[in-house]
Amino acid sequence: MSTVPNTTDQPSLSEDSDDISLGQLNGADTPHLAVTDSVGPASLGVASHEAKKNRVAPVEKRYRWTRRYSRPQRFVDIWSFFISFLGKRWLYSKPWSYSGGISADKQAIRRRAQARWIRHNFLNLGPTFIKLGQLFSTRSDLFPSEYVDELSKLQDQVPAFSYEQVKDTIETDLGRPLEELYKTFDPIPLAAASLGQVHRAQLYSGEEVVVKIQRPGLQRLFQIDLSILKGIAQYFQSHPEWGRGRDWIGIYEECCRILWLEIDFLHEGRNADTFRRNFRDIDWVKAPRIYWRYASRRVLTLEYLPGIKISHYESLEAAGLDRQRLAQLGAQAYLHQLLNDGFFHADPHPGNIAVNPDGALIFYDFGMMGQIQPITRDGLMRTFMGISQRNANMVMMSLIDLGALTEAEDMGPVRRSIQYILDHFMDKPFEEQSITAISDDLYAVAYDQPFRFPATFTFVMRAFSTLEGVGKGLDPDFNFMEAAKPFANQLMTNVSNSSNNGLIGELGRQAAQVGSSAFGLPRRIEDSLDRLDRGDIRVRVRSIETDRAIRRLSNVNLMTNYTLLVGTFTLSATILLVSQLPWVALGMVLPAIAAGIALIRSLMRLGRADRMP
Q1: I need a surface site. Which of 2, 36, 270, 319 has the fewest CB within 10 A?
Q2: What is the pTM of this model?
């Protein structure tokens, strides 16, 4: 086997050691490499000369997590970040912390600054927080839009680990010397990321492959960080404001599940195989084959499929590829995954899509995939029908059934918010809509509301927005909604064909709705009686005249206080002046003037309130 040995001497690391040297894990003495935002063969989505150029570009920044850490030191770093975050959030609502007073624009600027600070600190804290930030960027229902936007830009920027550690991992997991497994193996990685790195190799059968190796010590690091994060999740859950209506413990457990799946390369291999099977009859979509004889939980060997990165527009032009066709194919491929297969790529950014010389799309990195169950697709169908009919109540009930909306005591404001979205959304024809604008509206309404968009929904919306941006880069006239129109028409046709057309079909649909409501009525009555017994039902009665009388009485009481203050300070100033104490008397005059101004303003406010209808 031909290799170029790495002469860097790196000490080995025990997975069971509680004192982890991340500098050792990452090859602290090895040259820094340029990296991509994914650890899969996404870096292969460029021509070979570009990949070679990426391999020698230096990473200038050294992050804190490349130093030696023990569990107590990790505890201090994570909680220091968290306490600093709490301090920034506390200052955010304090008017005196803003120069020239608080305003909505200044708060927005501060939120953006806080989001950049969080992203920088997540990079500093290492692999666990890099992946956590990427997951949090899907939770627009939990975090402000500025946080979501900034975290969605979170990319891995880490040094590579040494060839000796790569060789040790491969030989330990596959049980044979590296020289017996691969005919050639390039010791210099094509790309490095927080979870691992990718090397090019060749099998003895002559097939060109890439080998993905997990970063050593990663599982132990996850164990330490996640145990600390559990305490933070418990704090959020018990917080009187942030814990209300939020299941932070459930969110923590879901993040743990996703993170552990992400570092299971066998899971990624199964995803890649499923993806390839779904597109086996479509020749313009390619995915790398998995070589299972050379795979384990920490090592994955994939077919080498080089191509031109889909966002390298000049290279595509030079290769004679039709950019308009590629934009349409990208949209069709994703809609096929979503609507036909129910199994879709959850991170289709430009680094994970390439184009081969024949114009076929190549997808990489299957660590994060989304899946839509048939029952969920039925719920989405009802939601789609409600949107097409501008029926806010139907949309709201279908979202409750999907688990995307939490049922509250008073659903009136939520229904009005949905109706606003529908009216705003349907102002323009379907093909003139922008995915990015639609998702921005949804996220703006969802934040701090009982909406609980599942991660799958956010993955879909973000993927649509990303593909719309890539499509416009390929073709300035590209519109994702226009490309989706045939799929939407097919969807509506299928729904229409499921029932009779014309008046009889409409009567049948209405009868079915009435029947469903009638059957559900006893259960709803029983639920209401149970809530009444528990005291959960609150009746709110508002009288405009009573509210006005209460406000007037409050203002009169306040003016009485101001009048007493004016009289008290004026009398005190007079007595002090007669007693030959003019400077002290002046001190009484000033608060008397202030109280007099407040009294005049209260009188004016009371007069305006009396003139209101």
Answers
A1: 2
A2: 0.64
